């Protein structure tokens, strides 16, 4: 049982790394759109980023999430799998008993609550690095870029410098800016992530098969990701704005103030900004994540059986 618990964390790390590689370019577009930089449409955002920053602009800040989100994903899958087994052990006296809907919901909610401890700082640093553009400064100061006269220096030289700057300027609490919004996003978000995945995997897998095929895992993971990220968009917008806030100036005092200002300035539609990118990005990113997780977990367990 102990080795299987460790296997979940290791497999989650592999899945997280796969998801970052697949999803980071669209994640950059999503972050830029949600932070309110005047890009307008998704297509215009893609063109603007490419024109001003070339292909490298879509991978800005990727080195940090490639390492950190892999660790974060390891924790997410490790917590979910172990919580699910613990609940099954408590309710059915068998950790491998098929979970009921309530069991999956409880394990998902626990995962969402605990994961913010690691995910909050990871997301914050990723977004701060993604937001280092002159467009962002001009948009927030209400100035036209051609008349500002600014020679913008990047606020952060890299992930380590970013963490150090935040700690120095905002203290430890600064690393958890936007965490309240993240909790409100992730607790229901993980319910709409793991529950659809579990049921879709069972539905797609033919009867008599001991485990789902790679295609079943890929398809179920992709659909679950699109559902989860699509429905999480309103609170994801608030979280992104709070975390992007502070790169050059502070605009929001908290979740309620961010919601109020965003609604007052841009209307209800602002909370669905990036919906298309979230849903589209959610499919390949989550498909890669679950496929990486399941395949590596099977390989680890097969190796453990061979060594026993």
Automatic annotation (TrEMBL):
GO terms for molecular function: transmembrane transporter activity. This is Solute carrier family 25 member 48. Signal peptide: none annotated. Solcar repeats lie at residues 3-86, 99-203, 212-299. It is found in: Mitochondrion inner membrane. Belongs to the mitochondrial carrier (TC 2.A.29) family. It comes from the Eukaryota. One of its GO terms (cellular component) is mitochondrion. It is a multi-pass membrane protein.
């Amino acid at each position: 049982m102990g080795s299987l618990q460790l296997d979940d964390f290791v497999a989650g790390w592999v899945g997280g790394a796969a998801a970052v590689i697949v999803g980071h370019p669209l994640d950059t577009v999503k972050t830029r759109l949600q932070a309110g930089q005047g890009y307008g449409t998704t297509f215009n955002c893609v063109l603007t980023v490419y024109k001003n920053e070339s292909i490298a602009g879509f991978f800005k800040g990727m080195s940090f999430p490639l390492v950190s989100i892999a660790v974060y994903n390891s924790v997410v899958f490790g917590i979910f799998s172990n919580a699910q087994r613990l609940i099954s052990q408590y309710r059915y006296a068998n950790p491998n008993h098929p979970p009921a809907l309530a069991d999956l919901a409880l394990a998902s909610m626990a995962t969402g609550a605990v994961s913010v401890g690691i995910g909050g700082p990871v997301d914050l640093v990723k977004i701060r690095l993604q937001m280092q553009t002159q467009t962002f400064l001009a948009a927030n100061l209400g100035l036209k870029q051609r008349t500002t006269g600014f020679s913008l220096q990047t606020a952060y030289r890299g992930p380590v410098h970013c963490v150090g700057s935040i700690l120095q300027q905002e203290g430890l609490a600064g690393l958890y800016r936007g965490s309240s919004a993240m909790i409100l996003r992730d607790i229901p978000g993980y319910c709409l992530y793991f529950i659809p995945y579990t049921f879709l995997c069972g539905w797609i897998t033919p009867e008599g098969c001991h485990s789902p095929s790679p295609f079943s895992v890929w398809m179920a993971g992709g659909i679950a990701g699109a559902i989860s990220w699509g429905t999480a968009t309103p609170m994801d917008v608030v979280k992104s704005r709070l975390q992007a806030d502070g790169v050059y100036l502070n605009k929001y005092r908290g979740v309620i103030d961010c919601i109020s200002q965003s609604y007052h300035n841009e209307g209800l539609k602002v909370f669905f900004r990036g919906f298309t990118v979230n849903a589209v990005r959610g499919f390949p990113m989550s498909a890669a994540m679950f496929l990486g997780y399941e395949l590596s977990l099977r390989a680890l367990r097969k190796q453990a059986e061979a060594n026993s």
